Amino acid sequence: VFRKNWSGETKTLTTFARGTYHTFDSGITTDATLLPGSIGAFELYVPHAFGSFIGYSYVIDWEEYE
To answer: What is the pTM of this model?
Structure first.
């Protein structure tokens, strides 16, 4: 979440962690699977057109499947 100004306006960008490949029973394959105890790196590119901002924070969101 990027804070755009002191008035509280925010913008959000999303990225995914680089993990291992996994194919679910549905046939969908992902490359963002993190196994228990593993570490996943991520990068977030902010395009020039995004504009200026005064601060940022990040939130890690995950879903667990069996």
So the answer is: 0.68
